[in-house]
Specification:
Elements lengths: L1 H13 L22 H7 L10 E2 L3 E2 L1 H13 L7 H4 L4 E3 L9 E4 L8 E7 L2 E4 L8 E4 L3 H6 E6 L5
Antiparallel strand pairs: 1-2, 3-8, 4-5, 4-8, 5-6, 6-7
Length: 158
Amino acid sequence: MKHKLLHLCALFAGLGFIPLAAPASAPHAESARAETPADHAMRALGARYRLGGSSPRTGFDCSGLVTHAFEQAWGVTLPHNVQAQSRIGIPVKRSALRPGDLVFYNTRNRPYSHVGIYLGEGRFIHAPRPGKLVRVESLRSSYWSARFSGARRVTPPG
């Protein structure tokens, strides 16, 4: 039972539900890694889809999840529109993706009609569609791979 509890705590900490404090003896505890848009998007894992939504309380659509994650992480307001988000930042090849990059898909018979945030290791997080929850998927799945439109990298301000 003790091991199960430890595993649950580790899982919740990894998802951001339990804050992890640096040990008091850590020499540079105050210089902890800044939270990224990907970190904030992961906190929305399991939130419901809602067209036009941009908060964990009310739900998210795909561009609303991106808008929320970047606002929370960097205080940057991105447009709540996939087409507009597809013109922000710099283009990135699929082979050069880094966590936090925006990944775009053709899900409505038009390029750049869906967006998610790349997490690394071939995975991305997104708000898929009505009736579904924010979830993590593989870029390599046949569905997403066939619909990949491109990727953009947005850099933090300053």
